[in-house]
Each structure stands twice: as C-alpha cells, then as structure tokens.
Write a structure and sequence with these properties.
The protein has 184 residues and is of the alpha/beta class. The protein is built from 6 helices and 8 strands. Helix 4 links the parallel strand 3 and strand 4. Helix 2 packs across helix 3.
Amino acid sequence: RRCAEAGAGAVVLKSIFEEQIAGEVEGLVRAGTGETWHPEAEEYIARYGREDAVRAYLDLIREAKKAVSIPVLASSHCVTGERWTDFARRAEDAGADGLELNVFVLPSDPRRDGAANEQVYFDIAGEVTDKVGIPVALKIGSYFSGLSQTVVKLSHTGVRGLVLFNRFFRIDFDIENLEVVPAN
C-alpha cells in the first residue's frame, strides 16, 4: 500500500522460493519418520507441504490485489521448470497482473556444462510463457559465459522483460562467535 501511495506504477511481491519449499517439505517428511511411519505417507506429506506454501502465496496475491489499484506481479524463484508452469497458471488465476521468474542455476555443478546451465533458463521461460497469458519477466544473474548472447536469445523466448541482475546473498564467517553471518 505504501508503494502505491508513493506513486509506484506496479509492485512485485516477494518471491516464493522453490528451494525453500523443498527444504520445508523435506523437514516435514523427516519429522514424520519413526516407528509408526508409513512410507506411502511420504508423497502425501510432500504434496501437502508444497500445496500449503503455494496456497499461502496465492492468498498473498489476492490480498495485494484487494489492497492496491496498481498492477501486482507475482515472483517465483525457481531452479527447475517442472512445478512452476502450474504455479504460474494459478498465480494468473489468483489475479497476478504479471509474473517475474527469478531463475538461478548455480554454475558450480561439475556434471553440467555452461550450455546445460543456460538451457534451464530457456526451458523455464518457454514452459511458463506457453501456459499463461500475463506478461512474464525473467530475472537472471550475471553468471553466463556469453551473457550478451544469452540475453539476446532469451529475449526471443516469449518473455516480455528481462530483469538484470539477481542480488545474491553473501555470507561471511564471524570467527569470534563462530557463526555464519550476512556479508556486505
């Protein structure tokens, strides 16, 4: 509301994070294991955990749309395309005026070369833009071997905008307190 009152033309909601959902689901599954654990319950719990996180985010979209008269853009931080096409469609159905796909593939996996890492961006962009009618922007980092060429190619995928660049969380080590802390 404060952004709209200050004259913003649109708002981008905080991202829903694929990795966070996966971590929370894993925690739910681990918490349920024990003597009385039924293995067939694992898929149910995983599906419930994913759906609960998505449902909460869709409620956020609906609440934001009621609170402001400016466009509201949903944002998802994703590293795979498999679940985000459904999320994109549901975000559109919840009233999102656009979607920011905040994609980041860590380039340190020795099993994937640069082309395979970049293909993830193209796959996600293509899958999502084929499923929704709202504008889709793709937010990327700077970790590309041929950044300018990749950006040009991404501009032909159906995305309506490119957001440059992700601001990555950096860590430091507090050796006095033996803690991991945010870095400047």
